[in-house]
Description:
Blueprint: H1 5-13, H2 18-29, H3 32-37, H4 40-43, H5 51-61, H6 66-76, E1 79-82, H7 90-93, E2 101-106, E3 116-121, H8 127-138, E4 146-149, H9 155-165, E5 169-173, H10 187-197, E6 198-202, H11 214-224, E7 228-233, H12 239-249, E8 253-256, H13 267-274, E9 278-279, H14 283-290, H15 307-317, H16 323-329, H17 334-346, E10 350-352, E11 358-360
Parallel strand pairs: 3-4, 3-7, 4-5, 5-6, 7-8, 8-9
Antiparallel strand pairs: 1-2, 2-6, 10-11
Helix pairs in contact: 1-6, 8-9, 9-10, 11-12
Amino acid sequence: MENLAEYWLSFAYIEQLGSVFIKMVFDYFGSPKAAWCAAPDELYLIENLTRKQIDYFISARKNIVPEERLDFILNKGIKFINYTDPDYPALLKQIPNPPMTLFYKGDLSRCNFNRTLSVVGSRKASESAKLNLAKIISGLKNTDVCIVSGLAAGIDTCAHKAAVNNNLSTIGVIGSGFDFVYPASNRDLYRKIEEHSGVIFSEYWPTERPITWHFPHRNRIVSGLSRGTLVAEAALKSGAIITANLCLEQNRELMCMPGQITNPNTEGIYKLLKNGAALVTDTQDILDTMGWTFQKQQEQESFQIDGIEKEIFEIISAGDCDLDDILSKKNIEYAELITILTGMELSGLIMQTAGGKYTVCP
Length: 362
């Protein structure tokens, strides 16, 4: 079979074209190569495309060598799937403007794309919202549910960390290319997802910066990958509300986690609830809304708690503490402590709070 990856990547390289344009020319010609190489007169025959869009594409492709775009991505060590690939998520194909190329890091086989739950909410989420969300997600521990979110600060970060800590797969959808980690504070979380817990997706060329409009645009992918969306905290005008509306447009289940009525970040929640979103106060509410029953995964190899590991776990069990607190109580090298704490996190024994302290998982 002819390898057409270089043509998909060439389209992806021209960010200004957008997924709608690319899908329309692909649907018309039936092949990314035929679409890429089409003569101007052929392109002008496509309905609903403006002459300005077509002229821009014709001008941009003159300076692009498809084989060089493929070599660039391969040299970066970034994996990708295209719209016609068998591994392309079936749910995502159902939305009106699916990304035609998805770049990714991690392992697709870790994720059950038929049991996906997106979690969205405020970047400035309250501590109570984050604690309640972590508790709800912990109720899914060791199941085949896959948590999807946007790897942003606040609720997104809480959702991904709770997934990692509870042996759940997780998918992060970022609003930039892979040359950037945003926010920088999530660098370690990126690594954990890539190496152990799931997949990070991006529709953007690796060199694309995390600019403002990318984030609401990527939300269609977060909801599009998911059978249901849980909104944990959201103001009336927020990215989370955008995702909630996309969820409804995509005919998926919408759920909301309530919060304090005096918190401005819950105004969007109560509006969604009044309009018919399902109320979630515990894990069972999610399972009932989605019609899911547990399917246990094979447990990870047990983490042996003995020696210095047991002593550190006992320190954390006595009360939340940060690195300095632990170092003041145990004679241990900093690098060794980080290694031990990482192992405990991956085993679901402990988790980090927003303030950088370690606490025992619920």
